[in-house]
Write a structure and sequence with these properties.
The chain is an alpha/beta fold and 443 residues long. 40% of the residues lie in helices and 15% in strands. Helix 2 packs across helix 4, helix 7 packs across helix 11 and helix 9 runs parallel beside helix 10. The longest helix is centred in the C-terminal third of the chain and has 27 residues.
Amino acid sequence: MTAIEQYQIRASSAAELVRAVEAAVAAGELTPGQRLPSVRQLAAKVGLSLATTASALAELRRRGVVLSEPRRGSRIGEAPPIGAPRAAVPIPPGARDLSRGNPDPSLLPDISSALAKLRGPMRLYGQQADVPELIELARERLTTDGIPAQSLCVVSGALDGIERVLAAHLRPGDRVAVENPGYAALFQLLRARGFGLDPVAIDEKGMLPDLLQYTLKRGAKAVVVTPRGQNPTGAALDGERAERLRAVLAQSPQTLLVEDDHLGEVAGAPLHTLAGASERWAATRSVAKTLGPDLRLAVLAGDRESIDRVQGLQACGPGWVSHILQRTVLALLTDPQVSSLVVHARDIYTRRREHLLDCLKQAGIDVSAPSGLNVWVGVQEESSAVGALLSRGWVVSPGVPYRLGGTSPAIRITVSTLKPVEAQQLAGEIAHLVNAPGGQRSG
């Protein structure tokens, strides 16, 4: 019995079918990843013409509720932009959760002292949106990293900044070049906004310049690049790759460039920025991994027009990022002890990542992750690999949310809390899967 039959979806028009599918997703009756019948089968089940059914599915795809792949049919997206109940993946007692992409809580600063020291008047309507001292500190740090920082604003995290700058320049239906594999939450955001995704393959040094050039020539209006700590692979631009990408962008000066430096100082690799390589650009610097994910704040730099538009959109909505939050972040960033902790965290993350890579290599699995908090390991079949590791007490993320067409199956392992003895054990378990008859294959 198909999902549509089980939940008895009926409709008399494309709009009704769209509403019915969205309602089933919101109720949890159609779940992320669930397969849908073919267009012909679905049309017969709901009593609509092929053209009407295809139109409804196209609208669901545009909204990011349904995903379709050649020769694989359609399915409910992994994170559809519908208020559906999303239960956390259960973690068996004693299992090690290496699937969430979180920083190590023990390497995050205690914000209580910063909150206790907060002084100053409560911000009221009609006052300046951004705390000037935070803007000046961000300008100093970004300029040191080679990012033009004349125009800045504060946003509610990296994805909030990315969404606002894309909305300021693009319209639904415009296409955005993205890394493949790439950040699953970005894919979900773009789909929810009605943007098309143009995948650009990457290697350990980031986007491949020739493929980006081809994608831009085909009409992509924007490109989102992670300069270091790429999620999920850990790729990082070096100087030579950055120069080649800048040359590609210079040939398409109207392309909107968005740079997402989400890891910042804890990425474990120097920043080779592309900021300013095109006429319209923006670069985010988040504090989520350095100070804590619950501090929903990032600084957005960009060309004057882009920042003006983002600030205008922000003024029409929330107005500003809380000054309590901004001053807390400012207090943490100017605390010498916190600065030392950030450097310590960067070194610990680097050692943990490199130790797992060494253990995998010793076990005969050669993978690369030059920066970041994650290691991307190719497998032959994701669900069986995830299931086999779960049965041995390891929770890892399947690669499918991070992959678009043209990529091979893989699993993502977050190394931020992985201890050396655990890395050896995990590498051994993965090698067992790879080397078992009919088992997984590294890639």
